[in-house]
Amino acid sequence: MSLPFLAKRTFSTSIPNLYKVTVLGACGGIGQPLSLLLKLNNKVTDLRLYDIKNAKGVATDLSHIPTASKVNGYSADENSGLANSLDSTDLIVIPAGIPRKPGMTRDDLFNINAKIVHDLAVASAKHAPNAAVLVISNPINSTVPIVAKVLQKNGTYNPKKLFGVTTLDSIRASTFISEIVKTDPTNEKVNIIGGHSGITIIPVLSQTSYYNRLSDDEKTNLINRIQFGGDEVVKAKNGAGSATLSMAYAGSRFANAVLDGFEGKQNVVEASFVDSPLFKDEGIDFFATNVTLGTDGIEKIHDFGELQPEEISLLENCKETLKKNIKKGYEFVESN
After folding, report:
1. More confident residue, 280 or 336
2. Which of 109-113, 156-160, 288-292 is predicted with the least confidence, judged by mean pLDDT?
3. What are phi and psi of 94, to 5 degrees?
4. Do residues 257 and 248 touch, judged by C-beta distance below 8 A?
5. 26 is in an annotated binding site
6. 113 appears as a binding residue in the annotation
7. Residue 11: pLDDT above 90?
8. 85 annotated as a binding-site residue
9. Residue 30 assigned ligand-binding role
10. Cα 277–279–285 angle (5° rounding)?
11. What count of other Cβ atoms lies within 10 Å of the Cβ of residue 121?
C-alpha cells in the first residue's frame, strides 16, 4: 500500500546550538515563572537554577515538563552551589533581590539589592567570565553599573555582554498604546530610551504612526503610564507583590533574543540598558537604546533618532537622574 501523504512531510536535519543558562534568584516571584519560560525554550538545553534555598525543589518541579532542557537546582547551603550553577554557563540572568512594596521606589530597593547583585557579580566574574549577564534586579540604573564595576575589577568585563533588561518598558508601551488606538499589541513597537525607572523611561511616541492622532492629554497620560506602570501593578496587588509575571515574560523574551544573536540570526534588535557611547562625554556611561545582537553579544548600539521638543525635555530630565543613579552604583562598589 502506498502512503502518498508521507511524501509531503519534510524533516529538518539542522541541529540548533545548545546553550547553558543560569538563573540567579530562581525561586522568587520573577525567578520561578522566568525559569518556567526558559525551560520551554528549545535553545536552552542546560538550565541551572540558584537561590538561597529551595532551588532543588523548583528544579525538580520543572524537570517533570517534557522538554529537551535538563534542569538542576543549586542552593547557598550546599558546598559550591553558586559556583556549580555558574560553571561554563553561556548566559546568566539575575532577577535576585526583594520586590517593590507599596510606596517603595526603585531607589528604595537599592541598599538591599545592591549587596545581592554585587556578590552575584563577583561569583560570575570568578566562575563564568565569558558569559553574557542579563540584569533584572532593580534599580537597574544602578545595579548594571555595579556589575560592570565588579567585572572590571576582576578583569573580566566585556561591555558587549552586559545588559540591563528594560524589555518590560517596551512591552508595556506596546500594550498601552494598542489599547488607545485599538490595534493588536503584538504589532505595535514603541522606541524606549533612557533608563529603567520613572522619568528615566522615555517612550519616543513621535516615531510611531499614531503621534499626530493622539491628543496632548493622551500623550501625557500614556507616557506617565509607561513610566510608572510598575506602580499600577503594585497597587493592584494590594501589597502582595510587584510586576513579576510580566517581568518574567520580558526577561525570557530578552534572553531568547540574546540566544538568537549567539546563533547568528540576522536583525535581532531589542532595547537594553548598556554601556553606551551616546552620552559618555556628559558622564553617563550607560543608556538604554535599541541594540543589534550577534554572536559576540552587542553588534551595534543604535542612536535614537530625531526627537520632538517635549521629548528632548524628557531626555534632559532623564540624563540628570541617570547620572546620579550610575554614580550611586559605582560608589557602592568602591565602598565595598
Report:
1. 280
2. 109-113
3. -115, 95
4. no
5. yes
6. yes
7. no
8. no
9. yes
10. 65
11. 27
Q: How far apart are CA 95 and CA 45, in angstroms?
A: 20
Q: Which of 64, 118, 127, 196 is catalytic?
A: 196
CATH value of 19-165 in 2.30.29.30, 3.40.50.1220, 3.40.50.720, 2.60.40.10: 3.40.50.720
Annotated binding residue 28: yes
Residue 150: name the closest of 128, 179, 180, 170 by CA: 128
Q: What is the pLDDT of residue 7?
A: 38
pLDDT for residue 17: 74
86, 22 Cβ separation under 8 angstroms: yes
241 annotated as a binding-site residue: no
Q: Which residues are CB-neighbours of 103 under 8 A, at least 6 positions away?
A: none
Alpha-carbon distance 287 to 196, whole Å?
A: 9
How many of the other CB atoms lie within 10 Å of CB of 27? 22
- Calculate the CA 159 to chain-centre distance: 15
Q: What is the pLDDT of residue 2?
A: 41
CATH number for the region 167-330 comes to: 3.90.110.10
Q: Where are the domains of the chain?
A: 19-165, 167-330
127 is catalytic: no
The mean pLDDT value of the chain amounts to 93
SS3 for 294?
A: strand
Structural contact between residues 47 and 262, judged by C-beta atoms closer than 8 angstroms: no
pLDDT tops 80 at residue 14: no
> pTM here?
0.92
d(CA 73, CA 126): 20
pLDDT over threshold 80, residue 100? no
Confidence of residue 226 (pLDDT cuts 50, 70, 90): very high
Q: Chain centroid to CA 17: how far?
A: 22
Which residues lie across from 65 on neighbouring strands?
none
Report how far residue 166's alpha carbon sits from residue 170's, in angstroms, rounded to the nearest whole number.
7
Say whether 31 counts as a known binding-site residue: yes
